[in-house]
Structures are given as C-alpha cells and as structure tokens.
Amino acid sequence: MNGNVGTTWAASATTLEERCMAATAMPDALRQYRASHAEDILSATVEWKNRRNPLRDEDYQGIADALGDDASVVETVIADRERKLSGHVEPAWSVELQTILNRYDSEEERVERTGYATAFAPFVAYVKAELQAYMSACSLPMNDERLIEQCLSAYVERLLGIGLKTVVWELHVARQAGSLGDGDAKRQLRRYFELLATDEYRGHMYAKYPVLLRFVTQTTVHYIDFVKEMLDRVSMDRDELASFAGVGDDFRLEDMSIDRGDAHDGGRAVAMLTIGGRKIVYKPRDLHIHELFAGLVRRCERTKGFLPMRVSDVLTKSGYAYEEFVEHGTCEDARQVERYYTRYGQLLGLVWLLHGDDMHHENIIASGEYPMVVDFETIATNHVTMDMPDGTDADIRVSTILRDSLASSCLLPAKTAMSADGTSVDISAFETGEQTMPGIVASPVGLDSADAHYERNAVTFSKDGCAVTLDDAVVDPYHYKRQILQGFRNTVAAAMTIDADEWDAMLSGEDTTVRVLVRNTSAYARFADFIHHPSALKDMLDVEAILENLYVYPFRDKRIFASEYRQMLAGDIPMFTAQLTGHDLHAPDGTTIDGVCERSVRERVLDTIGHLDEQAALQSRIIRNALRMEPGMEDAHPTASVSSDTDAEHYPIELGTRIADTAILQETDGTVSWLTANRSDTMAADKTVDERYEPGAPTSGLYDGMAGTGMFAAELYRRTHDERWRDLCTRMMRSLMRRKDRGITYSGFTSGLSRSYCALRMANAGITSPEARRCMTQTVRMLPAYIDDMLPKLLQRDNPQPSFHLDYLTGAGSSIMLYLRLYDVFHDMRIVEQTSRLGRTVIRAFPETQRNADESDDMPYPTGAAHGLEGMAVAFWKLYAATGNREFAEFARMLWRKSDARRSGAKQEDAGKWCRGKVGVLWARNELAATAGADGERFFEDENGRAFPDKADINYIISAMTRVTGDKDGSLYRAFASFPYSVAAKTGTAQRAGKKSVEDEREYLRKHLHLIAPDVTMSQVEEEAERLMTDYPDLYDNDDTALRRAVINKSRNEISADDIDLYKEGYDSFAWTVALAPAEDPQIAVAVMLIQGGESSNAAPAVREIIGKYGEYSQWEKSF
Description:
Blueprint: H1 7-11, H2 16-24, H3 27-36, H4 38-50, H5 57-67, H6 71-79, H7 92-103, H8 121-137, H9 144-176, H10 185-196, H11 199-208, H12 210-236, H13 238-245, E1 253-258, E2 271-275, E3 278-283, H14 289-300, E4 314-316, E5 321-324, H15 334-353, E6 364-367, E7 370-373, H16 393-403, E8 415-417, E9 424-426, E10 435-437, E11 443-445, E12 453-455, E13 459-461, E14 469-470, E15 473-474, H17 481-496, H18 500-506, E16 513-515, H19 521-531, H20 540-547, H21 559-569, E17 577-579, E18 585-586, E19 592-593, H22 601-610, H23 612-626, H24 651-661, E20 664-666, E21 671-673, E22 676-679, E23 682-683, E24 689-690, E25 693-696, H25 706-720, H26 723-738, H27 755-764, H28 770-781, H29 783-794, H30 812-826, H31 829-849, H32 869-883, H33 886-904, H34 918-930, H35 952-966, H36 973-976, E26 984-990, H37 1001-1012, H38 1018-1031, H39 1039-1050, H40 1057-1060, E27 1070-1077, E28 1084-1090, H41 1100-1113
Antiparallel strand pairs: 1-2, 2-3, 3-5, 4-5, 6-7, 8-9, 10-13, 11-12, 14-15, 16-17, 18-19, 20-21, 22-25, 23-24, 26-27, 27-28
Helix pairs in contact: 2-6, 4-6, 7-12, 8-9, 8-12, 9-12, 15-17, 17-23, 25-26, 25-27, 26-27, 26-28, 27-28, 29-31, 30-31, 30-32, 31-32, 32-33, 32-34, 38-39
C-alpha cells in the first residue's frame, strides 16, 4: 500500500503544542502572519472561546500556562487552519505510519478479513509480523501460534475501541451514497467489508480522518513495545517465575490474556499469563505496597482474637510485578460464612489504617472464608490539594473527614451517581447482585448488518467475584453486621498493640509507591468516548477542544491537568503515583508535580494511629450507618442521642447541646457544619427507589438540613437568651449564604430558597445578622428570575412527575407560601405581583397534570398536605387573602372539591400522616378555616365544607371495630360473646421504652459498668458526673442523670442510654382497649389502659364492666 502520507492532512493531526513549537521556530513568519491576519485571529479566538463548554475567559490563559504555551501563539495557530505556520513539519508518528503502510501489500500480505477490523488491515498485519519475528527469536518456551492469536485479538479490540465509531459512520455514508447497492442490510454489510478491503477506499478514509490515523499509529507502536517488554521480563524472570508458580522445569508460557484493565503509561496493561498450567497475573507497575499490607496483616495476626487472613502472593520486581491468581470459592458451612464477614470487618480496619480506597467489587474476591484483595494499587493512597471556591471551610472539613474514612473505601455499600438524572449504582465489594449502569458511553448496536449504530444503553454487570456463597446460594451480607463490626474492632485492637517503632519501620519504605486517583476513571472514559467520535477525528484541534474541559476540575496545581491532557492525547488513561513518604505526584513520563499532596501517606497513617480511639469511634458509626444497623441491636448506633431520662422542659436544651457539641467550627471563615446522615433516595436504572442515608455535610434545606437546624437554634435563643445559640445560628446563616447550591429545586422547603425561613425566625428571635437580612433580600430579588425559570417547567407537557412542580412541599405551592411570608416583612407589592404571576401559571398548568387522572385516583396528587390537592388549596387561599384576586379563591375551592372526591373514592387509602394522609387533610382544613379571605370571607361557609362532610369514613371504621367483638375470629369475641349490647372496639398494646428504674443508679453502674463500657472506669464516670453537675446545674441536678450522661461522654458516645439500661428489668406491655356502644349509634366511649397489663385483651373486662353498668343505670338503656 502506498505509504506516502499527505503533508496537509498529516499536519491536521498535529497537536496544538506541536503547532505552537513549529510556529515559534519561525519567528519572522509568525510576526508576519499575526500582522496580516489580525482580524482572522480575533475572530477565531472569539469562536474558540464561545463554543459550548464550562470554561471561563480567564481559563484559556490558565490552560496555556499549564501546558507551557504562549497564549498569543495559541490564538495564532488556532486561526491558521491552512497550517501555513506548521504544515512543513513532518511529525514523528507520520514516519512510523509510513513504515507500517509500506510494509503492507494488499495482494501478497493480506491478513484474514475480520469484519470491521478490515479497515485497519495494514496495522494488524504489521503487528502480526513484528510479534512473529520477535517470538521466533525468543528463547522463552511458549506456544507461539496461540499467543500471537491472543495478542492480535486484544490488539484489534483496542483498535475498534478507537475507530469503530468512524467505521460505522462511514458505513452509513457509503450506504446513503448508494455504494453498497440494493438488498437487505446484511448483504449491504458484506459489500461494505469488501469495500474496506480495498487500498483505495482505506486510503480515502485515512485521509478523511487523519487524527484517527495518528491514534491508531500510536496504539500500534505502544502495543508492540508493551508485548515485547512483557515477554522480555518473563524471559528474564523465568527461574523466579518457575518457583513462584510452582512449575519447576515444566515452565512454558501457554496462554496470554491481555487488557484486563485500563491501558496506562504507553499502552501498558494487566495481562493474565498461564505458565505450566498455573495462572499468574502480570502487572506493569510497582507493587512494593503489597509488602506493607502483608506485613501489617502478619503483625495483626499476632494479636489474640484477630482471625488469620490470606494475602495473595506477589513477586515484586522493579517497576512491575507478578501476582498470584485468586479464584472465587464457596464457603463450606455457616461458620465459614461468619468467619468471612469477621475477616471482612478486619479488612475494613486494615484499609482504613492505611488510608486505602477504591476497593470496589472487582478488587475483592470471596475465596471461601477469606476476602482477598486482588489489586493492591490503592490499598494505601494519597490525595492532591483541591480548590473549592464554592464551599465553606466547615463543609470542606467534613468532606476531608469523609474522604479519609471508610465511607470512601468502596468496601461499604454506597450508591454512586452515574448520570445527571440521579441514576446510581453500587460498585462496592459489599452488596451483591446485578447492577445496572446507565448509558454513560455509547455502545454499538446491530453490528451484524448495515443498520449498525451507536446507542447509550444501560449496561448490567454482576458482582459474582465478591459474592459469598453457601450451598450454591448467595449469602445476604446484611445478616452478618455484628461480625463485620467485630472484625473492625479486632483490627483496631491489634493496631493498639503495635508500638511507635514498629509503625515507623513499616512506613519507612521510600521506594514504595502508591496509586493516586486524582479523579474518577469513569470521567476519562467519557472523554475518550468524545474524542473518538468521527466529528473530532478530522483535526486535532477538535480533540483538544474537548480535552480542554479537563481544566475545570478544581486541582489547585493545574500541572495535574496538563499531564492528564497529554496522557489522553497519547492514547492512555491518565495515571499518577506518589511515594509512601513523599508529597509529590509522579506521572508515567517521569514528570514530577511537586508539593501537591499536603501530607505523605506515612504522615496520614501516623496521624490516624495517634488519634486511634477517637477516629475508630467515627468509623464504627460510619459502618453502622452503612449497614443500616437498627436501634436496639447489639452495638447499634442509637438513633436518639439524648438521654431518655430527660424531661420535656430540658429536652430541647439537651438536644441543642448535643447538636452544638458535635458541630464542626471553622474560625477561618466563621462557618459551621456537621457530619450527618443525609437521606439519599437513589433511583436505579429500573426506576426503583432505594432509601439510604449517606454521610455528608447537612443539606441547606428547611425540611432536612441546616436551615431547619438554624430555626431550632434561633428558637432556643428566643426562649433562653443564651448567647451560644445566637452564635450557632449566626454561623449557620453565614454558612448557608456562602454555599452555592447547585441542585436547587423549586421548593420553599427543600432548596436553597428555604434558608429564608431560618432568616425569618432569626428576625423573630431578635438576632441581628447581616447575612440573614441579605438572605431575605436576595430571595426577594431573585423572584422574577426564579419565576421566569420555573414557568416553562410548569407548562411542560409529558412531565413524568407534574405534581412535584406544583405541590405544597416540593413545588410552586411552597414557593407561594414563602414569598407571602417575605411580603409580610418587606411590604413590597412587587412580591405579591410576581407571586400572583406564578399562581396564575399554576392554574394554567394544573389541567395538564390531570389529563390522565381518574377523578377518584389518588395520583398524581396523593391525599395529604405535602403532595396533595389539600396543601395546594391552602397556598392558593392564602394567596387570595393577600391579593383579593377571586381567581385564586375559586381555584382553591376547586382543589378542595376535587380532594373531597378523591377522599370518597374507592381507591383512597387511609394513612395517618401529615405528608400523605388524613392528618394532612385535617391540618389543611384548620389552615383554611383560620385564614380569612378578602373582606373577612371564610373558606368554609357551612359544615358541608369540612374535611369529612359525611360519616362514610367514620362508619367504615366503626364497622371494622364491630368485627373485633362480633366475629368469631375477633380478638374480643369471647369477652363480648354473651354481652347484651353491640360494641365496636379496638385493642392494642403499647411498649414502654427503656427499663425500670433502680433504687441506686451508682451501685447499678458499679456492678455492670465493666459489661456496659469495658474501657471506662467507675472513677472516670464519677469525675465526669461531678464536672457535669458543676458546669450544667440546670441539666444535671441529681446524681443519676449526671452519672448516666458521664458514661455516654466517657465512651465517646459509643454507648447509648439503652445500652446503660441493658441489665435492668424491662417493663411489661401496657394493655389497652377502646370501645363505642351501641355500635350502630354510639352513646358512650370507653378507653381503658392497664399499666404493664400484658396482653391487649386484658383490658377488655374493665371495658365490658363500664359499658354494662352504664347501660344498666342510664336513661338510654333501651337504646342499647
């Protein structure tokens, strides 16, 4: 094939950096071009910067600086589309390309046609020839023919990963041009493959996509070098490998499975080698970190109670290693399963101690009763410094705490968002079962015909490797929470026995390197997907326009971006390492980015060891939260942090004290945050919702975040005038105002808007705060823009959840309520005018949400205040009261009539909740009844407008209660079987929380403290109790409450009030019965509760006696 690569289109594949170097090498020509093309340069620069991307104007200078380019030269070569300044340069890759093409003769050296890969036949032939020549000269015993076949298969996969999109695109171009003739799509595909086999067509395609040609050439050269290097190393290490694999003289390289992971560092990748029947994993990177991990395991195993672990064998060499292949294995009995999860907990502790992360499902194998790490790269790791301009210092501190915790390890269940719509997957090594990944990267569809195309389809993957099995069934890991937590404690206990000298020796390896994940590798996959699109493969500037977007990631040192950029241009997934004892980052090309890690891995580990008690307690809470350990379970984290002994008067203060004591205060900017468990409902690809609680900084909202906590603190200040609540509330408002809530919804309760409620409560409490006033002012000023943004969404057709844009909690209803409150503060009629505009749009949008709804259907507005018509009616009646606009009054009444129809419909479900249910209906009725409209107009003109206008609901309930006494299977049938009156009844039991009080709490603790809190002494408790009574006399005015709180404090909140009471006698159930008689027309209602009465029916005789006596002596006896 003709190897004469055209200069013009080869130059199109040169990088921006290469073009700048070429232009700079001709200073006279550069000056002349700039003088004669000033307008063109300006126009091209504006066009370049105005393309759709997240970059700011100043970022382009930053990009040039990071890459070492002169920004003015960059602007010039961008304008030089004809390559007048750089077209004369013959790039190195083009020389290699000519060698490859010159070696190929389509007649004499044709390779087997392999479908789409036929487009790259010259390259496949070249790789085959190079590897054949190398292997024939190699003295290593191997199956040459099989190995070459396997190498070519992996190589073709790499090529198609780069070029298949383009080949498929050109298939459609040829089809539309009529080049494939008539016939079905499969026949047309065969004709296209015949076309691909011709030199003429391939030459045309190569000239059209010179960037593709460059990428393929780079990949080819890198691949050949990688395979040769690997075989050279195997040959050099033959004796050691024979011993490592246990094959002796039977050494023979039989199989080689390449590309078992991403390609880094010039196309190097992990490979599976089969030597003498034994599988060995070749890893082209340093693995001295394995020695640190194995040494720590061996040291922990010397501690009593720590179960022996299995660590895979590794043959470590300079810059590469061979690792034992670990196979999945099943457990033989239930005891092995328990031991597996105890060891899993131990592994949690080991990874946490070394600050490891990325231990996802592919990196852990369940090998019988042993969880085994199969990728040690990130068993210890480091982090680079980031700039977070949009966050508060307190929130950043929370993020740092979590980054260094087990929450980031991938060993605990956690959902990772994979798309903008919230779709997420669990990639952890804990939860088993298939996971469905949204279509982040386009995948080929229908490749067996000319209809082939690309789609972003969901991809399902399994976690079979880390699944624990017993009797051919996958074990549910949530059944082994206690074992996991105990395993973690085993590691912590073992770590406490290691002295400072031992830690120093283990962490002194200056040659030990760790992998540093500067960003999620899935981000690189997205960028690779974009730059391999045919639209980007005609000119390298189009590729670089995409890669420039890497710059927006907030690395403080943008040299990291520059290295990522260059590694991706070279065809690699970017990779970085750091020394165990160093602060610098190292790129595969030898570049050192100094000082980007605030602390070395060694320093981070030693800091953890120095605060082991405190930090282990936090990790225990993170484990409990992740494993959903329920209150009352042994070792579970208590849901209530306030003692059950606290009376109602002191409860708010003690709760507030607990909140204040756990606050993370940052004096650098005067902000505050907390480490909280935030509800995180995630949606799987099948649209099922999984309710979880993820650790993080609190949200900004009133409903579930800092704005609500701020309101609580403001109210505490209003009632107590204690300055600590004023300070805490002021810090929260400052924090709220410094946050930039990116995911703002259109709710007055759950979004950034809701911080105004905190500001309103602060004003009500007499707390003067510039931030609070600014908050309210900003909220008012943003009203027109907010409404302009919201209106199109309200009117959008085919919205899958239309009510969520309109309702009282999450939509326009809540916004109307908030702005009416702000109107009361500012008395600015413009607020009312804009809010009225929003109200009128809701009225227009509402019919669309009802298009497919049945009159009696409970959706899309379920009965209740939060998402129902009732809550919306409240908002619009109050809007009517503020404006006098009859349209709003009529809409509110219409909503209430519809809600009446809903509640009387057959599909209605009774739910006793404010959010969704009849409690919310009653709340709405009270709000409507209490709000006077224009001229004092009442919402309910008569009793027909009340929440329950007839007795249908009440009669239904009484009918059900009558069956309790009248049906033979009713729980009170025997008690009322011969009773002369019809009775409607309901029974139940109430469990009293806690345990019975003891006469002497101090004596009780002396007897049981060693069981309750083994690490706490009675003298410590008594000393802490004395301090509490001295410092907080109002809260702790007796020994008992002070002693109990002291136990909790000295255990670092590991112990709850329920734990303290564990050995006390419990209460029996409280039995109760309520009854109405006569059932058909009730005249008497009786409620009986027996304190510690046991079974619920035990209260029935008293009820029977009361009703009987009443019926016997009353004037209405005959009515029974």
